[in-house]
Amino acid sequence: MEQVDPHKQATWEQATEIVGSLEGSSYAENFQPTYLDQDYLREAVHEVLTTETVTQPEYVDNLSASLAAIASGEDRRPVIITGNCSERVLLDQNLHAPALNSLRGLQIVGDTALSHALHIRRERGQNTKPRSEETEIIHPVAEGASEPAESPTQIVMSYMGDSINDPDPNRREPDPGRLVAAAVQARDIEEELLVTIGRHVPAAHEALNLYYERGFLRVDPRTGERYLLSADLPWIGLRTNQPDSDHVDLLSQVQNPVGIKLGAETTDEHLKRLVERLNPSRKIGKLVLMPRFGLDFQDRLPDFMETVREHASGSLLLYDIHGSTKAKKITEAGVEKKVKLRYVGDIIEEIKVLSAAAQAGGLALHGVHLETTTDDSRLECIDAPGDLPLHEGGIDPQLNPRQTKAVLNSVAPYLS
């Protein structure tokens, strides 16, 4: 009789439990894609469970210790998070290239007044993107035509990042195999980074796809504590930061530091409940709060800072670039569409305003969270009001190296 591998059997049971726990939930409930083939999904989750992780418990503990020292004021370094808005999954590429891209990202920050910063890269798993709606209407171009149809004629799944589906509207069905591809690429880039750079670079991404993230839960055999080893610093997005959400529940179970995106609508009670769920022991540096207010809501900052001081003291505060995003309608090829705009001057001003509000509230702005590209030829963010970007961002506009340096050099005196 064939022997059953106990470990394989256990991981199959885990995969079955993960898939079963989310079966039947709607996109509106937890922003999870609808996978049509549950057996294929179970196989994919099993593969993720058996894939080498991006980080290790000791790396996470090291980052936690650094963040605690910064939050307490013992360490005066700012925290800088940079990297692509949405990481592509391209297994056919030379994996030396993404490692060099990461190294280039580190060098860009290293060439600024914030070269001493604790630098965290949004990569090795930043390829699932939150979309407000599960589907979208597109204007298809008929074969042989030069322009889109005049009226919307096709409803497709929204593009949710390369770990779920494809930017091509004709390939939008969520594919479980992409979970595996993303996990393998993250693993391989980490291995290449260890060779190229010679050390582990802390990784951060939004812990959005629960099939993927639950597949990276591990127990540290040294301590029996649970870690999420898809990233050192996972964060919860604005759409999923409700205290009773599945995402908050997931990150309430792990030893990792946890980032939380917060908007101008954040209430005293909301933040209080989040802290109770995610940091009940009030551990210094456990939470990294990432407000994304924008200049239109700066009048709400004093109340927000008071809420942070009352309910989340000991947390870090990082500016988040998403508050700077605005939309403008333009007409292109006879079709009206929205263009996302980020103006470098607004980003700098927002950081200064947030720093001043933090200081007035007896707090400190510990750093910034930016979406950046290492490609000098890209112009996705604009340099002057009234301009339009020359290039469209994958999902959101990213600062190019010149703009990244301009932002960091301008705001260096306002951090920590």
Word description of this protein:
The termini are far apart. Helix content is 35%, strand content 15%. The protein is an alpha/beta fold. The strands form four sheets. An eight-stranded parallel beta barrel has the order 1-2-5-8-9-10-11-14. The protein has a two-stranded antiparallel sheet with strand order 3-4. 43% of the residues are buried. Helix 9 packs parallel to helix 10. The longest helix has 20 residues. The chain is globular, with a radius of gyration of 21 Å.
What secondary-structure arrangement, pairings included, does this model have?
Layout: H1 6-22, H2 27-30, H3 38-49, H4 57-72, E1 79-82, H5 96-110, E2 118-122, E3 135-138, E4 154-157, H6 177-196, E5 203-206, H7 210-214, E6 217-219, E7 226-228, E8 233-236, H8 246-251, E9 258-262, H9 268-278, E10 287-291, H10 301-311, E11 316-320, E12 326-332, E13 335-341, H11 344-360, E14 367-369, H12 401-411
Parallel strand pairs: 1-2, 1-14, 2-5, 5-8, 8-9, 9-10, 10-11, 11-14
Antiparallel strand pairs: 3-4, 6-7, 12-13
Estimated structural class: alpha/beta
The total strand number stands at 14
Largest sheet, strands/sense/barrel: 8 strands, parallel, barrel
Distance between the termini: 64 Å
- Discrete helix count: 12
Protein traits:
single chain; 416 residues; alpha/beta; eight-stranded parallel β-barrel; two-stranded antiparallel sheet; 14 strands; 35% helix
